[in-house]
Amino acid sequence: MVRSALIDPRITPTMFDSGHLLPYGWNDTLSDTFDSYPDDGREPGRVIRVDRGRCDVAAPAGVVRALAGEHTLCTGDWVTLHRHGDDIAVADLFPRRSAIVRSSASGRSEGQLLAANVDTVVIAAALDTALDLGRIERLLALSWESGAQPVVALTKSDTVQDVSLATAEVAAVAPGATVVAVSADTGDGIDILTAVIDGTVALIGPSGAGKSTLANALLGEDVLATGRVREGDNKGRHTTAHRELLPLPSGGALIDTPGLRGVGMWDAADGIDKTFPEIEELAAQCRFADCSHEAEPGCAVQGAVAGGELPERRLTSYRKLIRENGWIASRTDARLRAEREREWKTIARWQRQMYRSRGH
């Protein structure tokens, strides 16, 4: 990636040229937000990559390297930049209108930001191996919760004979989402996928799903490194090491992400509801409002399973995500309570010390 020179310190918010920011999603709403910040030489930018306390930011003069400062940034964030001598630092973080968050891979009770200000989430699932419907449902819940519109891209469609069967199978577990079978090698379905995505697009999925190859097809050139999957287990190498935002030739921008081994729920109750709308509708008909859909009498959900209207696998997946989300929520609440208790103890110690010093 070619980086520009440092920002010209003579540029002021009323002088900067937004032309370089337009391919990254700059619009009137963002301009109004920027105008609310101090008029002291700051200029807007969008984070395209974050790496160890520094970030690459698309700025009016080009892509610059900036210090993240006190902000926890992720790819897709809109920020203001300020010059400090020879350094450029992030001064302000625009409010995020959407964010893809999963539970931390470390297992700690905190969320991990994957991408911000995303309009469309493309979930990549490869057809050259058995479809994992549970993983697709998990990624759908994550996507719905972010506030973006999910699209499922069934990659490597040239490796199967009956594409329509696989598409129908996935569409059955993805209500409200568009499902498109694509092949980056033959170009099949790329035009359809390009037509249904909009704005800033985040590409997520496991390693080996062909995300980088698909991203290159959408970008129109081989910008991102790609790698073959291993024979035997169909697992791919992590050819994408960082999340990176790139302008799309058709308009909008693309965020390519590393393969996700684990996708834990993080405060995703609404996303789960949108992923399983038929279960939510059935649950409203249960005899008891707090029905767990296990063995309670008058359970409409269990009745639908017994009558063949609802696949048991679908209910099992729903229960798993609900339990996981509830467990994460309880851990988060416990962490917040512990933090508040520590703060009060610190205040109490300070007050005791103050009273003793006054007594002396």
Automatic annotation (TrEMBL):
Family to which the UniProt record says this protein belongs: Belongs to the TRAFAC class YlqF/YawG GTPase family. RsgA subfamily.
Entry-linked InterPro entries: G_CP_dom, P-loop_NTPase, Ribosome_biogen_GTPase_RsgA, RsgA_GTPase_dom
Protein name: Small ribosomal subunit biogenesis GTPase RsgA
Subunit architecture: Monomer. Associates with 30S ribosomal subunit, binds 16S rRNA.
Cofactor binding description: Binds 1 zinc ion per subunit.
Record Pfam families: RsgA_GTPase
Organism this protein belongs to: Rhodococcus wratislaviensis (Tsukamurella wratislaviensis)
Cellular component terms (Gene Ontology): cytoplasm
Function: One of several proteins that assist in the late maturation steps of the functional core of the 30S ribosomal subunit. Helps release RbfA from mature subunits. May play a role in the assembly of ribosomal proteins into the subunit. Circularly permuted GTPase that catalyzes slow GTP hydrolysis, GTPase activity is stimulated by the 30S ribosomal subunit.
Enzyme class: hydrolase
BP GO annotations: ribosomal small subunit biogenesis
UniProt KW keywords: Cytoplasm, GTP-binding, Hydrolase, Metal-binding, Nucleotide-binding, Ribosome biogenesis, RNA-binding, rRNA-binding, Zinc
EC code(s) of this entry: 3.6.1.-
Gene this chain is encoded by: rsgA
